[in-house]
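Appendix C reproduces, verbatim, an entry submitted by the partner laboratory led by Prof. M.T., so that reviewers can inspect both the input and the predicted structure.
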Amino acid sequence: MRWLVGWSSTAARALGAETAGATGYDGETLRPVGSHLLWGDPDPLWAVGDWRPDEVRVVHADAQNRIAVLGICGASDEELRRGLFTARGGALRHLTAWPGSYTAVVQAGRRVTVCGDLAGARPVFHAPWEGGTAYATAALPLADLTEANLDFGHLAALLAAPEVPAALRDTTPYEGVRRVAPGHALVLRAGAREIVGYEPVASLAVAAPPADPDRAVDAVRDALVEAVRVRLAAPRHVPGLDPGPVPGMGPAERRAARGMPVPGIGADLSGGPASGTLALLAAGLPGRPGTLLGHGTGAGERLLAVTFNDLTVGGREAELERAGALAANPRLHHVVVTGAEDTLPYADLDGPLTDEPGPSLVTAARHRARLAAGSADHFTGHGARQVLDAHPARLADLLLDRQRRHLVRPVAALTRADGSVLVPARVYGAARRLSRTPYRTGLEVLAERLMRRRFDEPKGPVGASLAALTWARPGPAARWLTGEALAEVSVLLQTGADRAAGGPGQRPGEFRARTVLARHAADLRVLEQAAEVRSQRLHAPFLDNQVVRACRDLPEALRVKPGARAAVLRKVLEGAGVTDLPPGWGTPSHASSAAAARTGLRLAADSLVDLFDTPLLADAGLVEARVVRKAVREAAAGEPLPLDGLADLVSLELWLGRLLARRGTCWTGTPARARAVPAGIAPQRGALRAGARPS
């Protein structure tokens, strides 16, 4: 893991620029373990973890004004200096408009500004400490610093309504540690904190002027090309040297067995449009996108394309054929990683402690098997679906903008999938109701559903679309929570409804799309930590700020067309000079993930039942153990239960076990007991009430 951490205190200490840290126990200096000091007191900042030298840049204007950028950032030092001077006047948006994925921290006198990103893949956290405020890009260091206990209200909301901001609020799994919402920045003035948004808010009273589709697609192309180019321009890093030969193993096999990536640049190549677009863009841009001369294949300019072939689950033959056709490009070096039963979801549940829980914990070993064959810098297509596809609730946005004619194509596609002549009336009626439903009413309806345990939803693609045509909906794991946990989340929603009289300031479709993106970005962050390969960096350009902004400017009429994502990415590639795509490129696949999850659950049913023999979730009052064990057995037997809900339960149970089993702390200068959740989880009733207080 890599993060930055610092604090802003109420009183300035007269320490030198090269010293920082409060006085801890026995006079020892309190500072993060394994940290590198970027600047010192009175408001110190550290970079913690295995940052590469080019990933940490600090530009000084003078002793009291400086900017630090951590991550991949395409701005030059002069642009950073100009950004620092502009930020001193209070303008922040330009700090997030450079290509790449990074966190910017600006210090202007005693004012410290930390900018989060738009998607939520690089979040910012804060907590009160020593009369001031500590902040970090990870929640666990702040929880260790403050010895925070678990926030049971947040954990209940994470299971009952994971995509509803009114339920999650700004909380984290750790009590007292808060999250800065995507699109916002944390501003600290001598310890006092303020959360400010840096994105302009569109008016709901007047529809936005119609955007030109061709110009919007060109903007997406430019943003994606620049996002890929800035990563290719970064210095190349060679992982640790190969210790030596192993009988019967080639160099690539030795690297994979020892958890070492291949030097150079690589990309996923699943056969889908997102990963294929990034691989072709990276391979086609000028420069040296592939391995370094003298390492690996020795080609010097070929990009390593990795395809995962699951031998236990069929249905992806067409995608694999398309991946092979794309890999015929002479600029690509194709590697196929085969997966057996040991790479199925739930097959290997051992792994490192992540900063937060996430459903990807049950599939981390599956992703690690693929990434171990990848490169030191590896492109992934994560986030493309969330930023390009149209959430079903966007149909209500079209009605709000009086663009009914654009409902014809998506409704016709649903009608063909269902085969019923009643589909258009049902979909149009649901979209019309949502367009006329206030946000507050949507929260109240969800609170009522949780209280009365109403979780049944229509089946099939039409049913999924109808269920999504709402301001808020229960999470897939909500049906297995205790009545007390659901009641606590219902109270949070009622409180949120009372505060949200004016709504979220967005149309329902746009609002739902942003919450889904935030949920996906948070889970991707968990996946990066759980499946981490030493010396490897995963790059998700679709989650870069500038790419997210360009995708948000796509007109609704273009976005809601069936196959819009593939059509947009095809135009992106054509604009970049790539035209020879294989037949069927962009065809959606419906087979792999659900079938793999069900197969893995069936094979791991006994171990999952043992996991929930005496679960920590039951000690926290969130579930009853027998209810979850029964659900696991029924799902393994083929009952139509929501598998993603079981993944939420299993991953949270795993995360709690790893958190309580850890030793040590993220800080020096504290005794061994000074860490998050020092007392563990004590079985008790009413445990949720402390975490459910409105913030």
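The first strand starts at residue 3 and ends at 8. Additional entries are available on request from the coordinating office.
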